[in-house]
Every structure is written in C-alpha cells, then in structure tokens.
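Quick log. Single chain, no ligands specified.
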Amino acid sequence: MRLVNPRGVAVVLVAALGLAPGGSADGGCPSGDALLDLRSGRNALWEITLACSGSGKRVWAVRRHDQGGGVLSTEPLPGGNHRLAIAGPHAWVTGHRLLRLDSRTGRVLGAVTGLTAVDQVTAGDEGVWALDTVRDRLWRIDAARARVSGRWTRPSPLRPLVVAVGAGAVWVTTWGARRPGRPSWDRGPGWLLRIDPASRRVMSRTRVGRVPTALVMTADIGWVANAWDGTITRIRPRIGRQVGPPITLPGAQRGRRARDLRMAADKDAVWVVDGSTLWRVGAGTGRATVASRVCPPASIEGVASGPEGTWLGIQAPDGSVRLETAPAPGPVRRIG
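-> predicted structure:
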C-alpha cells in the first residue's frame, strides 16, 4: 500500500511541500501489511511494517530476516512515522520517541531520554544523529547512554529534509523557505549541508535539485535524489562539491506528479525506487537505466543494500510484503 495524499504525492514529499497528506504512518489502516522502511545491517534485513489487528487497531512492528528471507525476530513498536538505522551493537527507530534496539536480537532496549519526536535517523562512524523536520532540529545521540549529547539548529530559513553520515561528516539536505505570493512548491533549489560532527559547524553548502528526499553517502561518492526534478546529484564527499551534471532518471515522475524517492548503494551502483520503478545508476559511469517496473497494484516500497547484495521490498496486491534480490544488469524486469 502506497501512503499518498489525493494528489498522488508521497508522505515525505507532502511534508516537504507543506501540503496536508491524505494518509500517513499515523493515518489509515491498511488492508494487509504496509512496508514503512527497509534496511540492511548486522547480517540481517530489517523491515518496519504497519498492519491492522482483528479489532481494527493499527499495529507497528520491526522484523528481522536472514538473507534467505526467513524471519529471525519480530518486535512490536509504538505508533509513529518510523524510520530505521543500524550501526554496531544498536539499531534505532524513529517515532513519537527514538527507540534503541539490540542489533543482534532486534529487542527494544528503551527510548532515548531528553528527546521528543523525530522522523529521521542515521548512524555510522560519525555517531548517531536524529532529525526533527517539523521543528528543524538535529540531535546528536550518545549511543551508549541513550541520551542527547548535542544539538544543531539550522542557520538559514531552508527546511531540513533528510540526514546521513559518511566520509567524516554529517550531511543534511534542505529545501527553500516559503516565498510570499508564490505556490508552496516554488521554493528554488535544494541544498546539501556538510556538518562537522564535533563542532556542528556547517563546512560547505552544495546546490542540488528540488525537494531532495533521499541521501546516501559512501567514502568515495555521495548521492542525492531530487524528487521534484526526477534527478540524482553526485557529490565528492571530502570537499562537498558536485560531480558532473545531474543524472536524469528515465521515465521518472516530475513536478506535482513526483513521488518520494528512496535509495541504497552497493559497491557497483546506487539503486533508486519511487514505488513503480527501480533504477540502477552505475557508480563508475553515472548512467541511469530502468532495472525493473512493477505491475500495478503491486509496488516497490523499499530498497536496502549490504555486503550480501541489494534487496527490494515488494508490496503485493494481496497486502503482503515480500523481499526479492535486485536484478542483475540486463533487460527491464517486470515485477507482479
């Protein structure tokens, strides 16, 4: 089930535009499982799902799978707009509270103290960082003690959308503030901020496309997905500079028909999904090709990469969620 507003714009994109969504993780009750997030970490695939109980109540859960798809553990979650990050001994889940989980077992250990609701989280060598895109706050988390250890406040009217860590920095995408007398989507380009983890000082600002809703950073290159433009911007992480022109995703919806983009990167490529299409962008060539398309009403709701490969979360027409490996380069593959 794709959680969209009546205009067909996905929830993250709706939040960026300041429009009122018609559905969200806190909204309607799906007929089956709704996949909210998919990640790879600690030799397992992790998914967050929303379902309905027999009494009609919404039920959230985080589930771990082995690389063959078998279920390793299932843990109930409180309500919220959930996103997931895994690094070292812990996993982190956003929502009304930021939860810390044991990454070996999937068990919830407790909530981070001194922190209200957040909707984005990232974790890596640069630490654990949580982003509240409603109040425009970025929090550094002490992973061992599960408490806030620092805060960053945006230095401009640009609104933060997503956060990632990598290449020795914290990265935040932002998009423009409202312009008096202009429509909500007419806010100019997006920007990528490179933030020093220790001082929380902005070291560089790089212009990217409009509504940058997905961000992946590796040691050698960064990738920003610009939902409104249907493009990918490549970044040289050490200097925070754009590499070449934006990469166009063939056939991507743009403008007011745009959909939320999600990304994952492996050693050879970055994979991008918008619900109906999977694109593969070569890490070396920067060439984007369509790898798979779904046959509606099925949809691709998540993508995750790890040492064992790249996986897709497929929302089936019957409401179930299944995991499939990403296809090898070749003819466009149909998913039904």
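The chain has one domain: 30-335.
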